[in-house]
Amino acid sequence: MRAPGAALLAGLALAACQAEERPVVEVFRPEYRGVETRLLEGDLVEFRVAMAGARDGQDVLDYAECAAAQYALIRGFGFARQVRTNVSEEGGVWRADAIYTVSPAVPRGLRTIDAEVAVENCRERGIPTV
């Protein structure tokens, strides 16, 4: 007869074996590979960014947001709003194709960005802007 805790330990061991293995980035050393900016129409702007050394897709999303915030300031606007972003990774290089609106006043929507605050946050985090 097995001890009552043995079944629990066996179950935990089996679950651990079945857990999805994901590579772990122990030291975050991002390599920002540039931003391509394209005015689409009116207040819509497309940003294509690429980076290596990202921990996950959020790092490249943050890079795109920093580019959008700086672009808004350069154009004399105080705000941006994310419309959509597509993220992909191939061979360790993460890419984001993001579209934002830029505006002088807080735009309607959920993903609004105060450009000045965002750019300062980007600088503090070491993320380059446009």
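[next item in queue]
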Amino acid sequence: MLINLFPQRPDHPLADAKELKRILAELHVEKAAHAVDELASWFESLKHARNFRLDHYFDVLRQLDDAGQPHLRRLARDYLYSPFLSRLELQRLWERNYGYWTAVAALYALCTTRARLEPKERGADAFKVSLPLADARLQAARRTLIKWLAYRYEPVEGEIWKSLGRTSLLAEAAGHAQKPVQLYPGHQGSSSAGHQYLHALVFSTSSMDGLLPQQVELADRMIAHFLPAFVCSPDCRPDSVYWVDAEKGSAPTRLARHPGAARPGLRFFSPGQALAGLEELIHVVERDEVPGSLNLGGEFPQKALLPVLRHLRVCWALKPPQRRHQRHAVKTRMAVLPGFDHSYTVFSGTSADLQTQTQSWVVENVSLGGLRTCFDESATDRIKLGSLLCMQVEGGENWLLGTARRFNRQAGGRANLGVQLLARQAQGVELQPRRSGFAAAVAIPGIWLHDDEVPGIVRLVLPLGSFSVRETLNFSQDGRIHLLTPMEVEASGCDYEIARYHDQPSPA
């Protein structure tokens, strides 16, 4: 009986303050990958630790998580911006990061669950002051998991949305959902459990499947920048665009589908003043200026920022984009050649030389504006969002020109790709810059788009970076010379740009 009067001490090595200090010091000088692996091992051991006071347990977890942040940022930069990593190296980086955030989310959830289920437990009262931070970090970890899934175009499991919604409602009930905390040492500004949940909702409705991984990261930082201007409320406002049922743990849904009867977990959100702020930022960046208040994690040129900002403008509009053309289900095969070079070769009339490089995809539905294809995921090594695609339906003679727009991985090693149709009729041409000297002999390959032609206007697909507003071009076709005066670039992808020119045909 006397023995039970004395609390048992935890036998975990991290319970010793000196040992914890030594381990943290070693993590600061360790290589990023090794440090994150070591932290993952400590997190695994903490799952089975016994006799830890709750406040001490959280403090150990918090310090370990703090120490991991600079290493995680380094690994994320390597994943997004290192050009020479193999597919296997990228996979390992992804697994290391995703595994970290999965483990730390589980431990923060353990802390908050203990506090709510065992409020009289020794240490629970001292932990109360840390509960807003614990909930905010828990929501941030889950939100980061969604971002890492977006990097690989993986679907978000329902359990993540259930956990996010449940924690948000519990934080609201406890009165600290909007209480500002500094999420991590050195982070700019403050956050809260409610803000992290809203961030996840806005991220999910911003069509990340239409962006490259580097663009996903920039979009995520833009969301963080404009998040205070978004509005999330239990009431449906005139400008509400989406709703979510936090109690059921649903993903956000457009108000085009009404949620039905009012219930406690319903939340409605809209861009509020964020859309006006985004419009203003676009105008600033178009002047080739980037405000110093933007935390982008690095310096990015105008051409890298503008596509992301314009993408978000469409997604955050009070009337999100609607499908203009009805889809029709089909099941047919399609030959595909990716990239500008292959497309130019095909539309120049020499596609027979590319037989061995043609991929075979299955078309699942079509519309006037595009199609959706299904193919083996191994083919994605050669396909990037924004790349040019030359396509021919099985049994057809005509080649189509399109661009990869949306990508999603599916179960069983399959993937879906949404393709926007650029032209049903096109023609390869050699463009001669109207210069003097040696440079004038260098021809520029172009693909002349014949769909929706406007008299006096020529639309050309060019290799990325070929358009110059100061450079006139000409090409000869059907016995006539076309003199082209540059107008503007109307669209661009990862390997091409579509430019418009004034056309002045003249006799050959």
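[queue empty]
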